[in-house]
């Protein structure tokens, strides 16, 4: 079997998004159903751009399980490692839409989401070792046995490179509702980051992990943990990417926001694709930045993620300003 370009692991769910904007859930009249879940969306965006991608996750033994697998196949994501929990139900997620920056989520993951029951037996360890990019998330650390499993796969991955470190991306993906405290989340985030080469986070998430919202200080702290690339998303102020030798500070790509919930996952999938295919730092981050903006200008997540030609078109029109230091 040829190695995958991108393998992700983490949340999956069914997004129920309102077809009316600017109203509370109590007043929504109709919803539409979409594939969702951060790690799942990342694998979809990578596939949209041409990567051979797969997601390791779990659904329930219910009608939403076949929906998830069919959607993944339609999007070009290999569903072979989407397991089925015999007793738990596939999660559903509701959101409200209040552009430009208020999109509250209501998660139905009780008493537990199937993806939190991932064990090492759900993974093809050799495939994880051989994938060009392996992507994990903070949600996967929020409960057992997924926490121990995620850390074990990260350790397997770190042993796979021989003399070099394979590209391993940890997305802090911090949802406080899944955790007892930020301190607990920060402890496990730092342990996961020890095995990663790339981190992705917004300012609130990075503060949870390293204690500061300042992008420059946070990126420096992440590099001190041993990461090779630290990415801090600054919302309306753009994105900062730093390695030990390069610094790239991009302004945001400005498009009208419809639903900002998919922006981070479109960014992440584009990042994973670019790194998997050897793009340089500037091309990768510029494309990811544009992909996030395009996703935010559309209603759905996976269903509406952009193609490479759409990303290039936006970049050609935008000409985002940036500062680069070597």
Describe it.
By secondary structure, this protein is of the alpha/beta class. The protein has one domain: UDP-N-acetylmuramoyl-L-alanine:D-glutamate ligase. The protein is built from ten helices and 15 strands. Strands 1, 4, 5, 6, 9, 10, 11, 12, 13, 14 and 15 form an eleven-stranded mixed β-sheet that branches. Strands 3-2-7-8 form a four-stranded mixed β-sheet. β12 and β13 (239-242) form a beta hairpin. α1 (38-48) crosses α8, α8 runs antiparallel to α9 (281-296) and α9 crosses α10 (308-318). The chain is globular. Mean pLDDT is 95; it is low at 321-326.
Computed over alpha carbons, the radius of gyration is 18 Å
The helix content, as a percent range, equals 25-40%
Query: Can you identify the CATH class?
Result: Alpha Beta
How many structural domains does the protein architecture include?
1
Tell how many strands the DSSP assignment holds: 15
Taking all residues together, what is the mean pLDDT? 95
Q: Label the overall shape.
A: globular
């Amino acid at each position: 079997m040829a190695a995958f370009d991108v393998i992700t692991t983490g949340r999956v769910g069914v997004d129920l998004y309102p077809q009316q904007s600017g109203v509370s859930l109590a007043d929504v009249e109709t919803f539409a159903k979409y594939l969702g879940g951060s790690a799942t969306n990342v694998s979809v965006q990578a596939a949209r751009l041409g990567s051979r991608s797969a997601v390791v996750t779990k659904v329930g033994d219910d009608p939403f399980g076949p929906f998830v697998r069919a959607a993944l196949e339609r999007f070009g994501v290999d569903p072979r490692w989407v397991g089925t929990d015999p007793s738990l139900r596939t999660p559903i997620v509701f959101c409200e839409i209040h552009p430009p920056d208020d999109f509250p989520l209501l998660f139905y993951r009780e008493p537990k989401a199937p993806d939190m029951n991932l064990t090492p037996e759900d993974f093809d360890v050799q495939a994880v070792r051989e994938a060009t990019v392996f992507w994990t998330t903070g949600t996967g650390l929020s409960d057992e046995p997924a926490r121990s499993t995620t850390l074990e796969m990260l350790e397997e991955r770190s042993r796979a490179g021989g003399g070099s470190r394979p590209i391993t991306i940890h997305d802090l993906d911090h949802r406080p509702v899944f955790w007892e405290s930020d301190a607990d989340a920060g402890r496990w985030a730092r342990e996961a980051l020890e095995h990663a080469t790339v981190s992705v986070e917004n300012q609130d998430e990075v503060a949870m992990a390293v204690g500061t919202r300042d992008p420059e200080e946070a990126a420096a702290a992440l590099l001190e943990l041993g990461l090779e690339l630290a990415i801090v998303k600054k919302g309306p102020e753009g994105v900062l990417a730093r390695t030990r030798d390069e610094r790239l500070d991009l302004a945001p790509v400005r498009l009208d926001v419809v639903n900002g919930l998919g922006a981070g996952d479109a960014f992440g999938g584009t990042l994973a694709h670019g790194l998997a295919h050897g793009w340089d730092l500037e091309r990768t981050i510029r494309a990811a930045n544009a992909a996030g903006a395009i996703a935010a200008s559309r209603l759905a997540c996976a269903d509406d993620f952009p193609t490479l030609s759409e990303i290039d078109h936006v970049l050609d029109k935008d000409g985002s300003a940036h500062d680069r230091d070597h």
